[in-house]
Amino acid sequence: MKLYHSPQAPNPERVTKFLKAKGKLDAVEIEEISIMKQEHKSEAYREVSPFSQVPALVLDDGTKITESRAICTYFEGVFPEPNLMGTDPKEKALIEMWDRRIELMLFIQFATWFRNAHPMMAPLENPQVPEAAAKAEKSARAMAKRVNAHLAENDFLACGRFSIADITLYCFTGFAGVMKWKPHEEFENIGKWMPRVVEKIG
Ligand SMILES: N[C@@H](CCC(=O)N[C@@H](CS)C(=O)NCC(=O)O)C(=O)O
């Protein structure tokens, strides 16, 4: 199987860190797609990912999977150990709850801020809308505060153990640096959580 990856981009990183946590990075062939060179908009790549987004996974039978979390779900099935998405209905629900909260309320809010505010993104986000950036920045900062409060009582985001939700938060934390935002320095509990995750996938 082949994984289409962009090393600087956070969604593909969610998949490679997930594979790393499984010890299975070598199980896939990786092809790099440069977003800055707009390779993801080429006709050839659109055959793989009609929405022109990275990552994408192509299975040996030709099946194409193009959402990072869906790709992780596939890998969780074929490489079950260590478990990263829950072992019973309660764990699965709690891990999904936190993963979706981080993705929807932090990761995507931050991406909307970045895409609408950073000059580097002007060719991809046309037009950039300052009001959208300001609103999304406020949402992302509010969510980071909530996550920090949650981590005051919890070593990991869900079920007292490392999971896909922590991987999503970890990738967001690195991504935030593009706007010179360091949530792990600004927020004490995110800062204490970080080395626990680095130990698994850093
Ligand atoms: N929901 C998708 C989002 C994928 C996505 O937005 N990928 C970004 C890179 S992090 C991308 O391909 N951007 C290209 C563009 O915006 O033109 C997923 O989770 O895989």
The secondary-structure class comes to alpha+beta
Q: If you average the pLDDT, what whole number results?
A: 97
| Quantity of strands, as a count | 4
Query: Numbering strands along the chain, what is their spatial order in the largest sheet?
Result: 2-1-3-4
CATH architecture of the largest domain: Up-down Bundle
Cofactors and ligands: glutathione
Structural key phrases:
2 domains; single chain; GST_C; alpha+beta; 6% strand; Glutathione-S-Trfase_C-like; 202 residues; Glutathione S-transferase Yfyf (Class Pi), Chain A, domain 2; binds glutathione; Glutaredoxin; 8 helices
Description:
This is Glutathione S-transferase family protein. Residues 88-202 form the GST C-terminal domain. InterPro entries: Glutathione-S-Trfase_C-like (IPR010987), Glutathione-S-Trfase_C_sf (IPR036282), Glutathione_S-Trfase (IPR040079), Glutathione_S-Trfase_N (IPR004045), GST_C (IPR004046), Gtt2-like_N (IPR034345), Thioredoxin-like_sf (IPR036249). There is one protein chain. The protein is of the alpha+beta class and 202 residues long. It has two domains: 2-78, Glutaredoxin (3-Layer(aba) Sandwich), CATH 3.40.30.10; 89-201, Glutathione S-transferase Yfyf (Class Pi), Chain A, domain 2, CATH 1.20.1050.10. It contains eight helices and four strands. It has helices spanning 10-22, 43-48, 68-78, 89-117, 130-153, 164-175, 183-186, 188-201; strands at 2-5, 29-32, 56-58, 64-65. The protein has a four-stranded mixed β-sheet with strand order 2-1-3-4. Strand 3 and strand 4 (64-65) form a beta hairpin. Helix 1 packs across helix 6 (164-175), helix 4 packs antiparallel against helix 5 (130-153) and helix 4 (89-117) packs parallel to helix 6. 37% of the residues are buried. The model has no long low-confidence stretch (mean pLDDT 97). Bound molecules: glutathione (GSH).
